[in-house]
Design a protein that fits this description.
By secondary structure, this protein is an alpha/beta fold. It has 8 helices and 8 strands. It is globular, with a radius of gyration of 16 Å. It binds D-xylitol-5-phosphate and zinc ion.
Length: 234
């Protein structure tokens, strides 16, 4: 039985970039609730994707809510650029607020971890987004413990749980993410999104654990029938 309270967000990272407009119109028609836009900087994530030059035309093409997932360092320097694109939500990483210096060799390791968070800066930035009409979402990497989120959970609209290491679509789901979703749900009543390796086999476990938005790139865009694939996640 499908659950219409569960939102499905389509990550365009696995769309056909030579036919992006067409893919977006198809996925909108198939019933996706929002579009997820994976922005990467070759730094917080070991890959480079796209930014405002792609997001602006996407904004003019679709009425779907846009969620910019900023896998970038120093996200605060770029908030205005994404606000100006007309996105509704900005999800950014708690790992970008870690006070420990970043070793460049770590960029290509599993993924960054937050242990020593600059909460004053983080709270200031959450407030900045809200005052600009943006829903702030705090994002957490697989190897960061969920308890670093606790001091700011009452300030954000959503938590985005990364269930793969940031960088690429098509990776395998990290099973321990389900328990992390459940731990966060015990302290948070807002939207919990899961991103990475989501498919029809783990969707029910994730929503059972408290996830309310399932993000998918490869499972959705490789499906022969987008509507059936979206429905299979709900
Ligand atoms: C990973 C991105 C994800 C990715 C999901 O760095 O944040 O949004 O596109 O891709 P799939 O669903 O294929 O794992
Ligand atoms: Zn993402």
């Amino acid at each position: 039985m499908s659950n219409n309270n569960i939102k499905v967000s389509a990550s365009i990272l696995s769309a056909d970039f030579l036919n992006l407009g067409n893919d977006i119109q198809k996925i909108e028609k198939a019933g996706a609730n929002s579009l997820h836009l994976d922005v990467m900087d070759n730094h917080l994530a070991p890959s480079l994707s796209f930014g405002p030059p792609i997001i602006k035309p996407v904004r003019s093409l679709t009425k779907l809510p846009l969620d910019a997932h900023l896998m970038i360092d120093a996200p605060w320097m770029f908030f205005d650029a994404y606000i100006n694109c007309g996105v509704e939500e900005i999800c950014f990483h708690i790992e970008a607020y870690d006070k420990n210096p970043v070793n460049h060799a770590d960029i290509t390791s599993e993924s960054r971890v937050a242990t020593n968070v600059d909460y004053a800066k983080l709270e200031n930035d959450i407030y900045y987004l809200k005052t600009n009409g943006i829903k702030p979402g705090i994002t957490i990497n697989p190897n960061t413990n969920y308890d670093v989120l606790l001091p700011i959970l009452n300030q954000v609209d959503s938590v985005l749980v990364m269930s793969v290491h940031p960088g690429f679509s098509g990776q395998s789901f990290i099973v321990s993410s389900t328990k992390k979703v459940n731990n966060i749900r015990n302290s948070f009543s807002g939207d919990i999104k899961v991103d990475g390796g989501v498919n029809n086999k783990n969707a029910k476990l994730l929503t059972g654990a408290g996830a309310t938005t399932l993000i998918s790139a490869s499972y959705l865009f490789s499906a022969p029938d987008y509507k059936a694939a979206i429905d299979s996640l709900r």
